[in-house]
Specification:
Elements: E1 18-20, E2 23-25, E3 31-34, H1 37-40, H2 49-59, H3 72-84, E4 89-93, H4 96-113, E5 121-125, H5 134-140, H6 143-146, E6 156-159, H7 164-170, E7 175-180, E8 183-184, E9 190-191, H8 194-207, E10 210-214, E11 238-241, E12 252-256, H9 258-261, H10 277-290, H11 293-316, E13 321-327, E14 330-335, H12 341-350, E15 353-354, E16 356-358, E17 362-365, H13 373-389
Parallel strand pairs: 3-15, 5-6, 5-7, 7-10, 10-11
Antiparallel strand pairs: 1-2, 2-3, 4-12, 8-9, 11-12, 13-14, 14-17, 16-17
The chain binds pyridoxal-5'-phosphate (PLP).
Length: about 400
Amino acid sequence: MIASVLPTYNRAPLQFAHGEGSWLVTDDGRRFLDMGAGIAVNALGHAHPALVTALTEQAGKLWHVSNLFEIPQQQALADRLVESTFADTVFFTNSGTESLELVVKMARRHFFDAGQPERTTIIGFEGAFHGRSNAAIAAAGAEKMTKGFGPLMPGFRHLPWGDHDALHAAIDDTTAAILIEPVQGEGGIRPLPDQCLRGLRELCDERGILLILDEVQCGMGRTGKLFAHEWAGVAPDIMMVAKGIGGGFPLGAVLARERAAAAMGAGTHGSTYGGNPLGCAVGLKVMEIVADPAFLEDVRRKAGVLRQRLEGLVAEHGDVFEGVRGSGLMLGLKCTEMVTNAELVRAGHAARLITVPAADNVVRLLPPLTITDDEIAEAAARLGTAARETPRKEPA
Ligand SMILES: *Cc1c(COP(=O)(O)O)cnc(C)c1O
């Protein structure tokens, strides 16, 4: 008999009763150090007092009015995002997937209005993840997500990660945009080198196409800049945001330059819940805290501390870990062929440590940005325990 919850997830046999900062606590009082943060969602950890206040104060006043009316919390958050980024305008969604849906529509409508309706193709890259809607699986293209769900939405091309020649050759009169994550998350914590992102920007300008970044996982302070592309000193035309922006409340956004967004007039897009007062009240508080230069500076400092600890683990457990990759507090431990990332994650649970697996046999570390130095040291100690306890494969 099928489970009463549609069994699409591979769940660990753990449930948590409450959270505090970097810790998740079970009903029977076991404390887990959370280096996953709900897959980069709980940017400020669990039950951050400022977010609890923002949510509960708003909850006592007004939950929902619909976008038929002005929503001051939404306006304030949009203003704040515009002030802090490349963007001139913002649309609010409830998730990364919905942000993907809009960026596809926006790019196509831009060229439609510009008298180039044949420019509909969006070029993406192997290893990408943009969500689970029909457009999002077509955009990412991996068989793992698309198998049995055809016919897939047309208008997407997929290129190998880092193949410059293939990219130059792939752009033609039907190309609308390049879509890429500055740091691939699900794909195994693969950062796009800064000079490659600058190269993409130049290429898009030369060929008159749009650059769309998916910063759903790597944005909102995760890499130590408010958005990851800032490291490269270039900006996209359109950007997807979600996960950390709501600190745990479902919230997403599409940020865009005026030029790219101008074709999206009244009636071209909408959402019932997107930009609702609850989500935006929380998002505004998250932005207030995360966009503070001193906060981001501390994220960069702590990222250095965590990275050094992880390099130490690689040196100590060479049979388990091959290396560290990633940026800021979005780090991956690449596992050797001797172990599987799934078993390492499981051994972590036994050591009361939460990590997240990713493709390419990588274990992801995405702690709350508020993690303390002591907690980083504790996480490294528990990772060491997990590494020792992870079963080794029999040599073939
Ligand atoms: C999680 C994720 C998405 C999808 O976001 P949802 O909120 O799950 O719909 C899209 N892109 C990236 C890079 C992600 O990490």
